[in-house]
Amino acid sequence: EMANSSTGILHGKKVVVTAGGTIERIDPVRYITNDSSGKMGFAVAKAAKQLGADVHLIAAHTDEAPPEGIRTEKVNSAQDMYEAVQRVFETSDIVVKAAAVADYRPVETATSKIKKRGETMTLELVKTTDILESLGRQKTSQFLIGFAAETDTVEYFAKDKLKRKNCDLIVANDVTQEGAGFGTDTNSVQIFDKEGLVLQLPVISKEEVALRLLTLAADRLSGRSS
Ligand code: CTP
Ligand code: CA
């Protein structure tokens, strides 16, 4: 349970959260996706509501049920997600990009089922729009939070992404670690800003990670040091 002092710290703030793994269609019966469960992003959306925010959740593929009382917009592809985020970005105060966005999508989506032919087949892929990088370029007063799931060299890659995408905070986790990453109910993260490590959290529930992250963001937004 949160301390009473945290109640309502995001009151009057619009928080946009993206969650889940995008789906990139190959044909009507096949697609490319990833192991994202959507749990971290949904936990962030629920925590934001708990802290009093006006929450808009943009959800790609996930087994999580739409959280009660939270505006949830379902999307499939990285492109859909990009367009959905674009529509709400300007009026948002905090944007949390917890989604696992495909880096590449098929150049073409076949309208009929692709038939089996030769011994090998090649699927041509093209880069998707990097949503977070695009938001980082557009941002005015929005507080931008990115995620970095890594299997090694966590700090180096996380800091590089934070800089490259012009984020205010980046939440890094080592998905090879016990109790962290895809599909688990817990997470162990390190939060960085431009200066370096801000917060190192032990293995705790994704709900708890979400509350700690948003409390930090709220503190920074209101200009208090934390
Ligand atoms: N992201 C995004 N749009 C993309 C790819 C990633 O908005 N097309 C966001 C993710 O939602 C996440 C952050 O960027 O908040 C980092 O994603 P990650 O996959 O770790 O970074 P990449 O820049 O794609 O680098 P790589 O996959 O090579 O590690
Ligand atoms: Ca990626």
TrEMBL record:
<dbReference type="GO" id="GO:0015941">
    <property type="term" value="P:pantothenate catabolic process"/>
</dbReference>
<keyword id="KW-0285">Flavoprotein</keyword>
<keyword id="KW-0210">Decarboxylase</keyword>
<feature type="binding site">
    <location>
        <position position="113"/>
    </location>
    <ligand>
        <name>CTP</name>
    </ligand>
</feature>
<dbReference type="GO" id="GO:0004633">
    <property type="term" value="F:phosphopantothenoylcysteine decarboxylase activity"/>
</dbReference>
<feature type="binding site">
    <location>
        <position position="147"/>
    </location>
    <ligand>
        <name>CTP</name>
    </ligand>
</feature>
<dbReference type="GO" id="GO:0004632">
    <property type="term" value="F:phosphopantothenate--cysteine ligase activity"/>
</dbReference>
<keyword id="KW-0460">Magnesium</keyword>
<comment type="similarity">
    <text>In the N-terminal section; belongs to the HFCD (homo-oligomeric flavin containing Cys decarboxylase) superfamily.</text>
</comment>
<protein>
    <recommendedName>
        <fullName>Coenzyme A biosynthesis bifunctional protein CoaBC</fullName>
        <ecNumber>4.1.1.36</ecNumber>
        <ecNumber>6.3.2.5</ecNumber>
    </recommendedName>
</protein>
<dbReference type="GO" id="GO:0010181">
    <property type="term" value="F:FMN binding"/>
</dbReference>
<comment type="pathway">
    <text>Cofactor biosynthesis; coenzyme A biosynthesis; CoA from (R)-pantothenate: step 2/5.</text>
</comment>
<keyword id="KW-0456">Lyase</keyword>
<dbReference type="GO" id="GO:0071513">
    <property type="term" value="C:phosphopantothenoylcysteine decarboxylase complex"/>
</dbReference>
<feature type="binding site">
    <location>
        <position position="161"/>
    </location>
    <ligand>
        <name>CTP</name>
    </ligand>
</feature>
<feature type="binding site">
    <location>
        <position position="103"/>
    </location>
    <ligand>
        <name>CTP</name>
    </ligand>
</feature>
<comment type="pathway">
    <text>Cofactor biosynthesis; coenzyme A biosynthesis; CoA from (R)-pantothenate: step 3/5.</text>
</comment>
<comment type="similarity">
    <text>In the C-terminal section; belongs to the PPC synthetase family.</text>
</comment>
<dbReference type="GO" id="GO:0046872">
    <property type="term" value="F:metal ion binding"/>
</dbReference>
<comment type="function">
    <text>Catalyzes two sequential steps in the biosynthesis of coenzyme A. In the first step cysteine is conjugated to 4'-phosphopantothenate to form 4-phosphopantothenoylcysteine. In the second step the latter compound is decarboxylated to form 4'-phosphopantotheine.</text>
</comment>
<keyword id="KW-0288">FMN</keyword>
<keyword id="KW-0479">Metal-binding</keyword>
<feature type="domain" description="DNA/pantothenate metabolism flavoprotein C-terminal">
    <location>
        <begin position="10"/>
        <end position="217"/>
    </location>
</feature>
<comment type="function">
    <text>Catalyzes two steps in the biosynthesis of coenzyme A. In the first step cysteine is conjugated to 4'-phosphopantothenate to form 4-phosphopantothenoylcysteine, in the latter compound is decarboxylated to form 4'-phosphopantotheine.</text>
</comment>
<feature type="binding site">
    <location>
        <position position="165"/>
    </location>
    <ligand>
        <name>CTP</name>
    </ligand>
</feature>
<dbReference type="GO" id="GO:0015937">
    <property type="term" value="P:coenzyme A biosynthetic process"/>
</dbReference>
<feature type="region of interest" description="Phosphopantothenate--cysteine ligase">
    <location>
        <begin position="15"/>
        <end position="226"/>
    </location>
</feature>
<keyword id="KW-0511">Multifunctional enzyme</keyword>
<keyword id="KW-0436">Ligase</keyword>
